UniProtKB/TrEMBL annotation:
<protein>
    <submittedName>
        <fullName>Paraquat-inducible protein B</fullName>
    </submittedName>
</protein>
<dbReference type="GO" id="GO:0005886">
    <property type="term" value="C:plasma membrane"/>
</dbReference>
<dbReference type="InterPro" id="IPR051800">
    <property type="entry name" value="PqiA-PqiB_transport"/>
</dbReference>
<keyword id="KW-1003">Cell membrane</keyword>
<keyword id="KW-0812">Transmembrane</keyword>
<feature type="domain" description="Mce/MlaD">
    <location>
        <begin position="161"/>
        <end position="225"/>
    </location>
</feature>
<keyword id="KW-1133">Transmembrane helix</keyword>
<keyword id="KW-0472">Membrane</keyword>
<feature type="domain" description="Mce/MlaD">
    <location>
        <begin position="46"/>
        <end position="137"/>
    </location>
</feature>
<feature type="transmembrane region" description="Helical">
    <location>
        <begin position="20"/>
        <end position="39"/>
    </location>
</feature>
<keyword id="KW-0997">Cell inner membrane</keyword>
<feature type="domain" description="Mce/MlaD">
    <location>
        <begin position="291"/>
        <end position="393"/>
    </location>
</feature>
<dbReference type="InterPro" id="IPR003399">
    <property type="entry name" value="Mce/MlaD"/>
</dbReference>
<dbReference type="Pfam" id="PF02470">
    <property type="entry name" value="MlaD"/>
</dbReference>
């Protein structure tokens, strides 16, 4: 009872609960700080990219950086194998604001210590470790997955210059970063190189720096420039040497062929053919041509496909096929004993002074055949045995007509070069075999024997003369002869014009001459009247008296 009374006297008091407790201030502040850090980190995060690489050598997650112009803009976050386990997929996070650096033509590669034909690079990574270099592109199209390059690109996209494409078949394989030369001076580099199985040829991309890009014209020709090239042709041995770099790895050279116009400038990515060497430019001619057949009735050893066809030393064509397969005659070797050779006449080689249309060339050659034009084999080099085809006129082959086989015109041929010399030597030997050399040799032996006897007699006579000249009397003869000459000189001095004898003789001759002039009338009178000495010339000739009767 008492307890109930006390409870009624002191009722319970209630207080309203506090809506916020000071205990929660610290967790709330920590939560807000965490949210701010999350927001700050998220706001500073850039795009995430994926790089496909052949290997992850030198790549470490959370350590390997991504740089642009040596400025860190990101870091590798993960490295894992590709789904096919044949490559590596590297994930990296870039800084905020780097989205503009990622385009379809951006390029990535790993920078590490490297020694190659371009030099030594990446030495700074020996201490800092490898890093990934980013080369921004120019395209506006964005991309986040890239194929990393195996090495640094030769040139950047911002470098001014000209890029061209080369297609080569049966040429020496070039490598990326090989030099591009113009007359021995480096003007660019090989950017890419790959083999196309479909076309079975090598495809290259070259970069020519400014201002040398203007040297590339539509008449330029490109060839493989090896460090040392030795060739033996119909013109002889040729040796070419390049720079030390091309001697080690090779390169590409270009120029305008001699006699060709400089041409005009070309556009970017213009395709060109790549020739094995500089001489192949003249051999692998791609201009207008006219094909002719020539049948040679002699050995064609030394004649090869690509050999020149010349007219009096001027190249006007190329040997195209040897032997040429005839469709109409299958047994040409045993049947005709002549070897058919396909000759390609190329008008553009001498276009400056030749007709401009192929029909004009055909008519000109047909007319020349009527004047005696013919083809013959001649030796271009005695050391190598190289042979070329020579076109020239022969007056003995005039009034010929051009034949045709398998739709191809046939050029007349004659033996030439060593074949003519061989034929003359054989003819000379045949004549020598027909001579009666036994009788001739016998007479020669007899003549030699007589000559030997004559020489023996001459030798004995010489010995006698030596003995005669050695005698004292013979040696005294020059002194006696000298005295006789002196006396003769004195005698001649006595009859000189100044001597008295000569003057008396001159006076006697004058008197004799006067006497002859005075006797001339007497002689004339005696000649006219022989009896003038007996009778008086004025009296009449006496007449004999007659007999007395």
């Amino acid at each position: 009872m008492t307890n109930s009374t006390d409870e009624n006297q002191h009722p319970a008091r209630t207080r309203p609960l506090r809506r916020f407790s000071m205990v929660w201030i610290v967790p709330i502040i920590a939560m807000l700080a965490g949210l701010w850090m999350i927001y700050d980190t998220w706001s500073k995060l850039g795009p995430e990219i994926t790089l496909n690489m052949a290997s992850a050598e030198g790549i470490t997650p959370e350590k390997t950086t991504i740089r642009v112009l040596d400025v860190n803009i990101g870091k590798v976050t993960a490295v894992r194998l590709s789904p096919d386990n044949k490559s590596v997929r590297v994930t990296a996070r870039l800084d905020a604001g780097t989205d503009s650096l990622l385009s379809v033509d951006s390029r990535f590669w790993v920078v590490k210590p490297r020694i190659d034909k371009t030099g030594v690079s990446g030495l700074g990574t020996l201490l800092s470790g490898a890093y990934i270099q980013l080369q921004p592109g120019k395209s506006s199209e964005q991309k986040t997955e890239f194929q990393a390059l195996s090495s640094a690109p030769v040139t950047g996209p911002d470098v001014p210059g000209l890029r061209i494409r080369l297609n080569g078949q049966n040429v020496r394989v070039l490598s990326v970063a090989d030099p591009v030369l113009y007359q021995g001076f480096q003007v660019g580099r090989v950017e890419t190189a790959h083999f196309d199985p479909a076309t079975r040829q090598m495809n290259y991309q070259l970069f020519i720096e400014q201002p040398y890009d203007r040297l590339v014209t539509d008449t330029s020709r490109f060839w493989v420039a090896s460090g040392l090239q030795i060739s033996a042709t119909a013109e002889g041995f040729k040796i070419r040497t390049g720079s030390l770099e091309t001697l080690v790895s090779g390169g590409v050279a270009f120029d305008v062929p001699p006699g060709r116009p400089l041409g005009g400038r070309v556009a970017n990515m213009t395709p060109f053919n790549l020739y094995p060497d500089q001489d192949s430019i003249a051999e692998q001619y791609s201009g207008r041509h006219i094909d002719y057949l020539a049948f040679f009735d002699e050995s064609v050893r030394g004649l090869t496909v690509g050999a020149p066809v010349e007219y009096r030393g001027l190249r006007i064509g190329t040997v195209q096929a040897l032997p040429y397969p005839l469709k109409s005659r299958k047994r040409w070797v045993l049947g005709e004993r002549r070897i058919p050779v396909l000759l390609r006449i190329e008008p553009d080689r001498i276009e400056s002074f030749t007709p401009s249309r192929p029909n004009d060339w055909q008519q000109e050659i047909e007319h020349a055949i009527g004047e005696g034009l013919n083809a013959s084999l001649k030796t271009g080099n005695l050391l190598t045995g190289a042979v070329f085809v020579d076109l020239d006129f022969n007056g003995k082959l005039r009034d010929q007509r051009m034949a045709s086989i398998d739709g191809l015109s046939v050029l007349p041929t004659t033996s030439g070069g060593l074949a003519q010399i061989e034929a003359k030597v054989i003819a000379l030997l045949d004549k020598l075999n027909g001579l009666k050399l036994d009788t001739t040799l016998g007479n020669a032996d007899q003549t030699l024997a007589e000559g030997q006897r004559t020489l023996s007699e001459v030798r004995r006579l010489t010995q006698r003369l030596d003995g005669l000249l050695a005698q004292p009397d013979t040696q005294q003869l020059p002194q006696d002869l000298r005295g006789t000459l002196q006396e003769l000189q004195q005698t001649l001095n006595g009859v000189s014009p100044q001597s008295p004898a000569y003057q008396q003789l001159q006076q006697s001759l004058s008197t004799l001459n006067q006497l002859l002039r005075e006797m001339r009338p007497v002689v004339r009178t005696l000649d006219e009247t022989p009896n003038a000495l007996l009778f008086n010339r004025s009296a009449r000739d006496p007449e004999p008296k007659g007999a007395t009767p």
